[in-house]
Design brief:
Layout lengths: L2 H14 L9 H20 L6 H9 L5 H11 L4 H18 L17 H13 L7 H21 L4 H13 L10
C-alpha cells in the first residue's frame, strides 16, 4: 500500500469535492477523523460487516458502470466496520495531503486483548493529545501513528484495508460536492 500515493488521491478528491474551499483548523479535521472512528464503533455495535465476496460477485455480473458500482458499494460495503476504518484512514491521508506531510507507516503494537471500542478510545486520545498545535512535526507524528495503528488493527481483524480504501476512494469520487453535507 503506497500511502503517499493514496494521500495524493485522497487530497485531490477532497479538493474536487469542496472540502478545502475554506481553511479549516487541524482540530476541526482531526475531529472528523474521530467521528469516523465513532462510526466504526457504531458499525461494530450493530454487527455491520462488509460482504466483499457478494460485492465482487455482484460487480462481476454488471456492466461496469458507475451506477452499478455505487449500488454494489452501498449494498455490500457502505457503513460497515471496514468502510468506516477506510474512511478514517482516508481522512488522515487527506489531512496529510493538505499539510504536505509525507506518511511513513511502521510496525506498531496493538493494545492486547482490546475490543474495537478500546482501540478507538486509544486512537481518540492520540488524535486529541496536546491541544492546539501548529507544529507539522507534531501533526506528522499523529498521522503516522494513527495510520500505522489502523493498518495493524485492520490486519488483526482480517480486514483487507488496502482493498476497502480503494473501493471507498472510488465511491468518494462519484459523490456530490461535500458528499451532500455541510462540511
Amino acid at each position: 500500500m503506497n500511502l503517499n500515493h493514496l494521500r495524493d488521491r485522497s487530497y485531490k478528491c477532497a479538493c474536487e469535492h469542496g472540502f478545502h474551499d475554506e481553511e479549516l483548523s487541524n482540530e476541526h479535521l482531526l475531529c472528523l477523523v474521530i467521528s469516523e472512528l465513532m462510526e466504526a464503533v457504531e458499525a461494530d455495535r450493530t454487527g455491520y460487516h462488509a460482504n466483499k465476496d457478494e460485492f465482487e460477485v455482484w460487480i462481476d455480473g454488471q456492466d461496469g458502470s458507475d451506477e452499478a458500482f455505487t449500488h454494489a458499494f452501498e449494498k455490500y460495503l457502505k457503513d460497515t466496520i471496514s468502510d468506516e476504518l477506510s474512511d478514517t484512514v482516508i481522512r488522515l491521508l487527506d489531512l496529510a495531503g493538505l499539510r504536505n506531510i509525507s506518511i511513513e507507516s511502521y510496525p506498531i503494537e496493538l493494545i492486547p486483548n482490546a475490543a474495537l471500542t478500546e482501540h478507538c478510545f486509544y486512537l481518540c486520545k492520540v488524535l486529541s493529545d496536546g491541544g492546539r498545535h501548529s507544529n507539522i512535526d507534531w501533526l506528522k507524528g499523529i498521522v503516522d501513528c494513527v495510520v500505522s495503528y489502523l493498518i495493524e488493527l485492520a490486519w488483526s481483524m482480517d480486514v483487507d484495508l488496502p482493498w476497502h480504501i480503494e473501493q471507498k476512494q472510488k465511491h468518494n469520487e462519484f459523490q456530490p460536492k461535500l458528499h451532500g453535507k455541510k462540511y
